[in-house]
Design a protein that fits this description.
heterotrimer, A alpha/beta (283), B alpha/beta (277), C alpha/beta (347), B: 277 residues, alpha/beta, Elongation Factor Tu (Ef-tu), domain 3, 2 domains, seven-stranded mixed β-sheet, globular, C: 347 residues, four-stranded antiparallel β-sheet, 11 helices, 31% helix, 21% strand
Chain lengths: 283, 277, 347
């Protein structure tokens, strides 16, 4: 999967036609084969754009107001990224007319060890769900399987599970990289950052981390698209996907097999209410 | 460090409503011995905490020449100040750390004419200095106080200003931004009144100014026009602070720690700092 | 500097470590989720003193904890009372194993800010009670640039004892400070030869390739001088364009020392905490009323870069970056402070 040339061509055309004033793609790191997001305003930088199976980061994150406010943006999205973008569109975070989407039919990206990333192995939608231009040939929706880690976790006793999660929270340094790398965490001021609230507090304790991470994962329940930006961003390498995948599996089983961001204008499981919704999993 | 961050408990002795959104809290330390030894200079600030709600930085708005208490004038602006206004009552406890920072150069300005230019809540730090200078009146020459607010009801320390006006050795000029029916003093923004009404001479004069950023910006332009040298213009800077000890890094402007090297700066010093305040 | 050098080998070193761990409160890099963090250990096999620099967190939290309790408070109808926290008194002796040279240098840098004017006594106590045993790096990591800065890694005296590899599997335990020398003399029981000038030569030979293994090199003096005049450089906007605005770089940096003070109150009782904060945080300088001197990303990056390479040097005479490269490795988008300052200073 090397679409670098193709993306460079499209980007050149977009700049030439004055359709965009910002392009968000990937750039090769100089020190190893990893890639980082690359934001360009100058067409002269286009030759540096790349796209391979190392293009990991979810670029929809850069549509948040911090980065490209009131700009016309062209960006590259993979299947999972496009689902996040779909949700951002539905939740009125970006204007469709302001963005030009290059959708990639993704064959899966590699993790740090050079193996296919776990979320790509379990991917339900490798094709872009929203795009202006598509690269590659679509392979269609795949079947949802419950994540292996979640299945394993389910076999553990409650105390064991609690201990495991506690050890995760203990290693959290509260840098908020998870939140800042998540395209769907776009609140102007996060409730967790309130300096003087009695509910949340900024102190860097493990109970504070638990509070912050649990709140965060619940705000993303039914919205998380499993791009694992958060997990890749975490400097302590915490397995954050456990929180999201757990929520996802519960929602999938109980809310008509709902998966986030798959369809246009789908506001997510928690926004639709029906009297027949199951509630037996609620404590 | 942790001990340095522990406040001393004070009781709110009196709350004075200055304007719809500014209140002055008169504080006394619970331990009278501590109150007696609590010395400060005009322009210094304290860290004021409503425990459980947070800590904020306020300048002390009274002078240490008036002993037994100190005042903090607080404008409702953010979360903690809103909590202070809504929850802090007379007789309740607050935590105080300080005094921190440098102070107005009370010795350097001895024997000089003083021109105070204040706007809105900016009169608070000036009030401390004005009180100090009134109490040491013989050390200083002519006094002029120019004070402006958006409306007449937004003026702080109304009673004290009346007293100042009665004092023959002080010249007090007041102004509001827009005309009001019952208002008999000047109308117009501070820099305009400064240029058109006060018309101060620069000779042997020091200007001490404090107010909202926009007022400061244009007042400095006016003072420049009137011929004041940047070293004769003294102001106090507002910056987000938290520790007050030159550690937490919030108030950094270049290599300057506003909480330690400031908050009082001359315009000359400000010019040498990176434009980041 | 007088040299106190003990020659030993791998087993000898392990014995030395084991003795220390048995006697003192010892901290060393412990692996979890693929990252090494300095934790209290009771057995040598729990830790890896030779942990790779790329995946090892800083020792900063052992001196400047990510959260410290400042005090407790309790409200009742007579008013509010403040009490001390039940934190430990910081009097116990601590040993840290496997510290990297750059990381230890970070403490020397922090000393400056904590010891000027108001003195941070808790930090002082932690510093005084700790013996730092450092392991000499054989080669540079991908993001390392410690040799390009304003200190000499070879002659660093930021740690008390240095473990150095020699030729043919020899290992030297070298005391760097008085404290370190006393500690080695007290705690090394095995019969071992004291190294000579010749050993020093051998060490030098072993590290011949060290300098050459650095990918990143720069002229510190030039960069520092140029940056002093580049406050208005438009490059800051370019270099920070893909920064996502998290606080990772600051929290894992061995020298970043900004903190915040927060209260946690439940009903009538509460605790005041002091915990890490970062200038990359958008609210860092936001004042009540809405004024923010650094409202956008590039201004925050400018503060970060210039604080590290200009302001701190100007104020305290040391560079606030020690070249460990932790920020670049941990950054979700691999922004390196090295690249930032060099790109800005390029003009």
């Amino acid at each position: 999967m090397d679409y670098s040339k193709k993306i460079q061509e499209i980007a050149s055309k977009l700049f030439a036609d004055n359709k965009i004033n910002y392009f968000v793609g990937y750039k090769q790191n100089s020190f190893d084969d990893s890639q980082v997001p690359f934001l360009i305003t100058d067409p002269a930088e286009i030759p540096k754009l790349v796209f391979t199976d190392r293009s990991v980061f979810n670029l929809a994150n850069y549509l948040k107001p911090d980065h490209t406010k009131r700009k016309r943006v062209g960006l590259v999205v993979k299947g999972c990224d496009s689902r996040a973008l779909n949700l951002m569109l539905t939740e009125s975070q970006v204007k469709r007319e302001n963005i030009y989407i290059i959708g990639i039919c993704c064959e899966g990206v590699l993790n740090e060890k050079g193996e296919k990333a776990q979320n790509c192995v379990e991917c339900v939608m490798p094709d872009p769900v929203v795009y202006d231009e598509m690269i590659g040939s679509p392979t269609g929706k795949r079947e949802y399987t419950i994540n292996a880690d979640i299945r394993e976790l389910a076999t553990k006793a409650l105390e064991e599970r609690a201990d495991y999660f506690e050890s995760i929270f203990e290693n959290c340094i509260r840098c908020n990289a998870c939140r800042h790398s998540c395209p769907l965490c776009y609140c102007a001021k996060c409730c967790i950052d309130q300096e003087t609230s009695t509910l949340y507090h900024g102190a860097n304790t493990s109970s504070g981390a638990m509070h912050a991470l649990m709140t965060w994962s619940l705000h993303l329940a039914g919205r998380c698209v499993d791009c694992r930006n958060c997990e890749k961003a975490c400097p302590s390498h915490l397995p954050l996907h456990l929180l999201h995948k757990q929520n996802e599996s519960v929602i999938y089983e109980n809310f008509q097999q709902h998966l986030a961001g798959m369809e246009k204008d789908d506001r997510g499981a928690f926004y639709k209410y029906s009297l027949s919704d199951p509630d037996d999993f609620i404590l | 460090m942790e001990q340095l961050l522990v406040p001393v408990m004070c009781k709110v002795d009196k709350i004075i409503d200055e304007t719809p959104d500014i209140r002055t809290y008169r504080l006394k330390m619970n331990d009278p011995a501590k109150m007696e030894s609590f010395g400060w200079m005009p322009g210094q600030f304290v860290e004021f905490s409503l425990l459980g709600h947070g800590e904020c930085t306020f300048c002390i708005s009274s002078s240490s020449t008036r002993q037994g208490y100190f005042d903090c004038s607080i404008k409702r602006a953010g979360i903690v100040t809103a909590d202070i206004h809504s929850q802090l009552e007379e007789g309740m406890d607050v935590g105080i750390r300080g005094p921190y920072g440098n102070w107005f150069p009370v010795d350097d300005i001895k024997g000089k004419n003083l021109l105070f230019v204040g706007g809105g809540i900016g009169l608070a730090p000036l009030r401390s200095l004005i009180q100090y200078c009134i109490d040491n009146r013989s050390d200083y020459k002519d006094f002029t106080i120019l004070y402006g607010a958006r409306t007449s009801s937004d003026m702080c320390y109304k009673e004290e200003i009346e007293e100042w006006k009665k004092n023959p050795s002080l010249k007090v000029i007041l102004t509001i931004d827009k005309p009001e029916e019952t208002w008999k003093e000047n109308v117009g923004v501070v820099p305009k009144i400064l240029e058109e009404v006060v018309k101060p001479g620069t000779e042997n004069t020091k200007v001490i100014t404090c107010g909202p950023p926009i007022m400061i910006k244009y007042t400095l332009v006016s003072l420049d026009k009137l011929g004041f040298a940047p070293k004769d213009v003294i102001t106090t800077l507002e910056m987000k602070m938290q520790c007050g000890l030159g550690k937490c890094g919030r108030c950094n402007i270049g290599s300057t720690y506003v909480c330690k090297d400031g908050p009082v700066f001359t315009y000359e010093q400000l010019k040498s700092l990176p434009d980041e305040f | 500097m007088n040299v106190f050098l003990v020659e030993t080998d791998k087993t000898g070193l392990q014995k030395f470590y084991e003795e220390i761990i048995g006697k003192f409160e010892t901290y060393a890099p412990v692996e979890k989720f693929g990252k090494y963090d300095y934790k209290r250990i009771s057995k040598l096999d729990e830790c890896d003193p030779d942990s790779p620099i790329e995946t090892t967190m800083s020792i900063k939290p052992l001196f400047f904890p990510k959260t410290a309790k400042v005090m407790k408070f309790k409200e009742d109808n007579t008013g509010t009372t403040i009490s001390e926290t039940d934190e430990d008194s910081l009097t116990g002796k601590r040993i840290i194993l496997g510290v990297k040279h750059c990381d230890a240098r970070g403490l020397q840098v922090l000393d400056q800010v904590y010891n000027w004017d108001y003195i941070d006594t808790d930090y002082q106590k932690r510093r005084g009670n700790t013996v730092i045993i450092s392991t000499r790096c054989d080669k540079a990591g991908t993001q390392c640039f410690c040799t390009s800065l304003d200190y000499d890694v070879e002659k660093s005296d930021a740690h008390d004892i240095r473990i150095v590899n020699g030729l043919d599997g020899k290992i030297y335990i070298q005391a760097v400070t008085q404290k370190g020398e006393g500690f080695v003399k007290e705690n090394i029981s095995q019969q071992s030869a004291v190294g000579s000038q010749q050993s020093l030569e051998e060490i030098k030979k072993h590290y011949k390739s060290f300098e050459a293994s650095f990918r990143l090199k720069m002229d510190y003096k030039e960069v520092n001088e140029k940056l002093q005049k580049l406050f208005d450089s438009p490059e800051f906007e370019t270099v920070s364009s893909n920064c996502i605005g998290c606080n990772t770089c600051a929290f894992i940096c061995p020298t970043c020392h900004c903190f915040k003070i927060t209260d946690e109150k439940i009903k009538d009782t509460g605790v005041r905490y002091k915990s890490y904060d970062s200038c990359n945080n958008g609210y860092f300088t936001l004042m009540a009323g809405g004024h923010n001197p650094r409202p956008v990303k590039y201004r925050r990056w400018r503060q970060r870069a210039l604080h590290k390479f200009v302001y701190y040097k100007e104020r305290f005479g040391m560079n606030l970056c020690v070249g460990c490269g932790h920020c670049a490795i941990s950054c979700p988008v691999n922004i390196s402070i090295f690249d930032v300052v060099n790109q800005v200073a390029k003009v």
